[in-house]
Design the sequence.
């Protein structure tokens, strides 16, 4: 698929309600357990998605579209959720993510981004020059990658419980 | 986590509504595209989940719990969905899956499975002896693995669209 705003927005719109369906009714071990060590739990991942809504996607879109000559993005803090989520329930985080996403999609739509603007560039602090189209496609793909991660983290809780079937479920080995 | 009926049912209950949230409002390319070759699209995967509800999980549970001496499971047809889904919309498949899952969870609950019964055995045609507990854990893990697969299939549609960010999204390489 070639990136198109309307198709990309379809994915960005569904993520908050999908995460509520997926995680909203589960008991604590499903959402708090991780893959061991410093890996992330579903709870941590929702916090990470919130931090992206607050500090990453829209600010970077605005850096690309504004008139300033400085097109360098601020680095994204991949560990901010451990501080920001402290004391909050998963239900609170899921609501916060939904509110931020709705607000950010309204901002995105108000930009009325043209095809020409999709080719405008910004500078990622590590990756170098990237286009607005690539940033918007990355926002979509980032949601999907984290839904896949949440599914994998939960599947792995039963790694030893499925016995010989583990041979048929490649995700358990990742 | 050690397999427990109530925690397992939490996952089995959410899958139909999560898939409706995830896929129900997407335009056709998201749900019809696959990873290339003979790989499966999200549409194919929902058909596969339906086939499992019809022919796999409950019949195997009943083989383990019934009084017959023959405990050998029937092989699961991993390609039945290509015939069974023909002519159906994704919305029809999502509704069919939800109806079957609700019905099957009612059957599961009516069995009032005891901890002793969880240790009873059946014979998988390829894997050999498996316990009811392993079968039930596999049902849960199978749902989660296919939600992860659906997310990956859709993420990969933008594999070339994210430009240099592909380096940060390992799922795109799978």
Sequence:
């Amino acid at each position: 698929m070639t990136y198109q705003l309307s198709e990309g927005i379809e994915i960005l719109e569904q993520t908050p309600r999908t995460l509520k369906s997926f995680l909203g009714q589960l008991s604590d071990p499903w959402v708090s357990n991780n893959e061991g060590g410093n890996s992330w739990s579903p709870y941590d991942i929702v916090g990470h998605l919130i931090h992206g809504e607050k500090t990453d996607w829209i600010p970077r879109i605005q850096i690309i579209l504004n008139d300033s000559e400085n097109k360098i993005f601020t680095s994204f803090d991949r560990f901010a959720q451990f501080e920001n989520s402290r004391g909050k329930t998963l239900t609170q985080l899921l609501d916060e993510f939904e509110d931020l996403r709705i607000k950010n999609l309204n901002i995105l739509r108000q930009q009325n981004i043209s095809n020409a603007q999709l080719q405008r560039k910004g500078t990622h602090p590590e990756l170098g020059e990237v286009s607005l189209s690539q940033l918007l496609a990355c926002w979509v793909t980032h949601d999907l990658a984290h839904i896949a991660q949440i599914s994998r983290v939960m599947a792995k809780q039963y790694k030893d419980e499925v016995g010989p079937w583990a041979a048929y479920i490649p995700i358990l080995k990742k």
About this structure: Chain B touches chain A through 53 residues (CB under 8 Å).
